[in-house]
């Protein structure tokens, strides 16, 4: 384990060094500060904006959902109440939106007619509708399955 | 009338009067009262404890090492696949001198596969990265923020890892829609940051190895110490993340993987959408290849026995039809039937040696790759054509009329269009 860790760590440090060297020597001279700025920007947008929004969404949804539909059994910790299905639907819809965003923003600005040829707004809406429908269809299934799997004698909330 | 302000003890929250100065003492008056814990050290201690209370608390579940380990495994696999296929692409596109003449030309779909995988694994990594970072987000607020040199180094390496993976995926995602809002060169920075990212990843794995091992299986010692009640919730989260990976893959992979073409809803290209059934990266207008430049076109072959051919002379040479994919570095690819003269035959006619490398010059006047080099393994391959026709029709202007290169297992940017000159390099 120790030998493996040292090998991994050394290899990592070497590759990191190669990357840094490529960044410094193989790019234009003003590139390094620009890249550092964009690296920091990527972290700032992710850690300062995206994650707080996701955490807030979780906070806003989880408690009311559990109040309305129950928390599931003690061992289920919410999973069998169907909250997981709702969360899964939101994750899928959110990721599809993120992937669609560059296409939606650049629609009609393709460099030639064969670049960005599809109607991405319609496709994105279609995918969100499908995600919504699948989530809605799975919710009662998951809740009933969760109830059926409840061990005998467990109080029903 | 003035309000006399009575000095109080400097300990937070204490309203007692400070200790009176000892008779005959020099220097400033004491700032704390007689209470044994009310002194400078105690004040620091209590303000630190207060800060600790103010830091965000994460009561939600699953911000735990088991969740991070499971998602991290998938993410690590996606990142490594993305890195390896990226290196393959880079070597094929800009081969180092030692291997330039020995690049493999088989399988013919090799680059189509590896570059399709590069873009697909990058897209699949997006939900995984977001889920992984969500799971470890509370670690951002560890207190105190720096606990020694070792801890500082570890946090720095994590910062390098997180920022480089985030930026690499962002750059790649925008590159496939040909959108470049940054001031630097995409290719150079994407290439350099890939090594930074993988280096930081290996370093991270080395640092976290014991933690990963302790949570590798659901019966591992570390996993067993976590609340057992979280397990079903974790399973459900992982299913949700897995569904997101599947969803983003299925709606984009059709731009390279033909069976998924009907579900190709969010890919920047539709492989059968374009003139003559193929997409185009650079049109004749974009490359500033005018009709006049093409009208009196002649192919010049420079070698030991140089010669010039008109289009009709070229068309009278033995023609061959091959089915070869055109595979773009941006991830889309499509197969087509190409018809033209074998480059090998043109070289033999010029008396070129067998190990000769070629320089191929295009009429193209704008954009990169107007002049490309072709290693000996491609030049001698019987499937490498100077194509005049595609899918049964004469090449359109946008596909490189009058003649273009098409070779097996090669990035699309090197399949030079509007070829006017082939030079034998010796």
TrEMBL record, chain B:
It comes from the Bacteria. Keywords: Membrane, Transmembrane, Transmembrane helix. Residues 292-425 form the Oxidoreductase molybdopterin-binding domain. The chain crosses the membrane at residues 74-93, 113-135, 156-180, 192-216, 237-257. This is Molybdopterin-dependent oxidoreductase. It comes from Streptomyces ureilyticus. The lineage of its organism: Bacteria, Bacillati, Actinomycetota, Actinomycetes, Kitasatosporales.
């Amino acid at each position: 384990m120790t030998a493996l860790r040292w090998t991994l760590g050394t290899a990592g440090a070497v590759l990191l060094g190669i990357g840094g060297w490529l960044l410094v020597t193989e790019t234009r001279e003003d590139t390094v500060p620009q890249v550092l700025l964009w690296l920091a920007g990527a972290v700032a947008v992710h850690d300062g904006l995206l994650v707080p929004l996701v955490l807030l969404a979780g906070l806003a949804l989880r408690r009311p959902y559990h109040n309305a539909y129950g928390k599931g059994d003690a061992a289920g910790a919410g999973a069998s109440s169907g909250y997981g299905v709702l969360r899964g639907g939101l994750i899928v819809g959110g990721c599809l939106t993120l992937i669609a965003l560059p296409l939606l923003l650049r629609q009609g600005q393709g460099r030639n007619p064969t670049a960005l040829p599809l109607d991405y707004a319609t496709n994105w809406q279609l995918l969100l509708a499908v995600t919504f429908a699948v989530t809605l269809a799975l919710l009662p299934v998951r809740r009933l399955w969760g109830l059926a799997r409840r061990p005998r004698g467990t109080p029903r909330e | 009338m003035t309000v006399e302000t009575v000095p109080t003890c400097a300990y937070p929250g204490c309203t007692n009067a400070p200790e009176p100065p000892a008779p005959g003492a020099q220097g400033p008056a004491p700032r704390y009262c007689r209470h044994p814990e009310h002194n400078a050290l105690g004040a620091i201690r209590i303000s630190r404890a207060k800060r600790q209370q103010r830091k965000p608390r994460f009561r939600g579940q699953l911000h735990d090492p088991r969740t991070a380990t499971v998602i991290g495994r998938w993410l690590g696999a996606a990142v490594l696949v993305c890195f390896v296929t990226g290196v393959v692409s880079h070597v094929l596109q800009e081969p180092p001198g030692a291997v330039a003449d020995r690049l493999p030309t088989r399988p013919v779909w090799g680059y189509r596969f590896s570059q399709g995988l590069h873009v697909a694994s990058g897209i699949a990594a997006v939900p995984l990265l977001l889920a992984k970072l969500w799971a470890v987000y509370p670690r951002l607020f560890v207190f105190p923020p720096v606990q020694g040199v070792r801890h500082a180094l570890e946090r720095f390496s994590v910062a390098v890892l997180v920022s480089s993976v985030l930026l690499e995926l962002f750059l790649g995602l925008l590159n496939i829609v040909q959108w470049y809002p940054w001031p630097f060169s995409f290719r150079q920075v994407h290439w350099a940051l890939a090594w930074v990212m993988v280096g930081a990843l290996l370093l991270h794995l080395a640092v976290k190895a014991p933690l990963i091992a302790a949570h590798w299986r659901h019966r591992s010692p570390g996993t067993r110490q976590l609340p057992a009640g979280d397990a079903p919730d974790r399973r459900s989260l992982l299913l949700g993340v897995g569904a997101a990976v599947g969803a983003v893959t299925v709606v984009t992979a059709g731009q390279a993987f033909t069976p998924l073409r009907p579900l190709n809803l969010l890919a920047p290209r539709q492989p059968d959408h374009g003139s003559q059934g193929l997409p185009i990266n650079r049109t004749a207008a974009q490359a500033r290849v005018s009709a006049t430049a093409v009208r009196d076109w002649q192919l010049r072959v420079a070698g030991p026995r140089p010669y010039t051919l008109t289009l009709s002379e070229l068309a009278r040479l033995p023609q061959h039809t091959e089915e070869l994919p055109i595979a773009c570095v941006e991830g889309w690819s499509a197969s087509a039937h190409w018809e033209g003269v074998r480059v090998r035959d043109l070289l033999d006619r010029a008396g070129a040696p067998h190990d000769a490398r070629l320089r191929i010059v295009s009429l193209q006047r704008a954009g990169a790759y107007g002049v490309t080099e072709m290693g000996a393994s491609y030049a001698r391959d019987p499937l490498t054509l100077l194509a005049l026709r595609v899918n049964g029709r004469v090449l359109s202007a946008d596909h490189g009329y009058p003649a273009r290169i098409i070779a097996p297992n090669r990035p699309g940017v090197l399949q030079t269009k509007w070829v006017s000159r082939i030079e034998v390099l010796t």
